[in-house]
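Co-fold these.
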Amino acid sequence: MRLTRRRFLGGAAAVALSGAGVYELVDRLTPAPQRPAAGPSGPPPEQHVFDLATAESEGVEVLVPPLHSEVVTAKLKVADLAEAQRELEEALRALDARYAPDPAGLGVTLAWGLPYFETHLPAQVRAHLPFDRRAGKPVLLPTRRFPSDPHDTLLEQNDLAVLLRSDSLDHIGDARKTLFEQLPFFAVTSIRRGFAGGGFAGKQSLPKKMALAAGVPGAELIPDTSELFLGFTSTQKAGLGPRLIANHETLGYVDLRSGYFHGGTHMHLSHIAEDLEAWYLNFDFDERVLTAFRPGLTDVKQGAQTVAQGPKDAATVEQLAGEFKRTGRIGHSASIQVTSRLQQDVVGPDGTVYPKGTSIPQRADFNTLDNPFAFSATPERDRLSTDPQAGVHFVVFNPSGDDFERNRLAMDGVLPDGRRLPVGARSRAQGFNSVLRTTHRQNFLVPPRRHRSFPLAELST
Amino acid sequence: MRATIVAATVALALAALTAGGAGATTAGSCPAAWTNGWQRLADRIHAPVYCPTWMPNPLDAKIGGDYTDIYSVSKDRSYLVSFLEHGDAGSGDVHVNFRGYPGRTAIPRCKTIILSGGKTLRGTTPCFADPAGKARAAGIAATVFRVNQDADQWHVLLAWRHQGSLYTVSEHVIKPYTYRQVVANLHRLLQSLVLVRPQG
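Predicted complex below.
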């Protein structure tokens, strides 16, 4: 199927708010993957936990992401928080009753920004916000830029972000309508849509099909079965944190204080534009591997998309520094692994053993053709365009804001021991980073499910 | 110039895409206005060169003409002939390179420089890499290379061998031409090539 540019643009503009626009193509281009039936238990206590089926890709176990993802951000327009809390929770429970908490059903994650807490509940958040002992800071930090960010990366101030995940666009549409049209509490600031996967069975993947249909520059260069635009599989199981590891309490970094946010986590949301032509026309396959994973990785078969990144493959600080000295490069994965992988075995509070090398962050990123969003209430500020653009809405859960920042800084060559590898911002030595441009960022707190609706509001009276 | 490039591009890109297959551009002889330059090049390097009979709009392939950007012959007789139209105010470029390496068929290596802190790390890499299929026309079986260096950086390049020599033609992927249009242009260029042999 080839979508004309006029149809693409017309569709995107006309239905950004009310419907899915071009993303309806996802359903037409790729059938929903077969998923095992959901178990009898209800939603987990954690909002961010979203169990995915696994598949094998090039001999590596990978998680099969939901076809559709959407993030809606909003500011509050609420007078009575306690009343709003009850009504929102009621609406969320209705969604829970309609859909199983899995990709065949619907995943709903409510994440609250610092402006929500500071504006509406300053005393309560001072009393209950968990504290990152390792960092000596609260778990929710003001959003910041990083060394490789452009100077014009927008640091957002939303009260709320809702992440919706499903194989069904109808389910996501129902949730958006339920939460943002039928309830009077939110002024939507942006809608961000996208997709992932679809290529594990050897068929043309969704990102490739969607990029071709939209006619984004470089679409033809994406490998046919690639899970994401940049050509490598991002959801291998060993590269993502196991089920509860991103909870505030699991690794012991965080003082939960009152315990109100036990089972919660930190979420970072950003939009990153990707220059596909720069990636595929300037980096040959070997260099794409070196810069996406690590320098010295020379035994990867030409054209491979899934490169094993198990616990034993994780780079150490010394390896990273040594390879940088030898080659002048840091690999994207290797640089992050010095902070994103456990440096020693850890036993969680429930007795689960997390071995050294286990990944901590749980990513939920997805590709997009938004430029940068499907809808913006402030299009000029957000530099909204109807021209489709390859990008990623990056969503990641970490035990704390500092934990996210450590990973993101390591990606720019700032090591956890304080050393700073002299990697030029967005230089070729940074690989991925040289073709990425972050347009927006914001940090959020994801409360446990029991407090997902206007957290702390019940303590305000 | 911008309007000229864009308008002509739309028309020609459509023509190139629909023409794509055999017969759209048949190689005859090197156009009269261009032949002197290519003949002089062949004579200078004592080896055949390929003259195009079609060029992407607005370029021509007159060596020494308005669009000539680089005309370089090395001591080893290898050559680079480059034609460029630089559009105004970000409207884009149209840039086509022709290369020949008489007497050798190996893909040359290009120098790389990585600045690491205070150090400069030097190395080499194949000048043409990431092969992505074949293009056949005018008796030539060319390999398509997607990642190329130096003057061919950010170009798609076709390379082929003829009588013990390596030849290439490449075009920059940049507005107003998309990747798909550049590939179509290169196929059409390949179809249009005629061999100019040294005289005397």
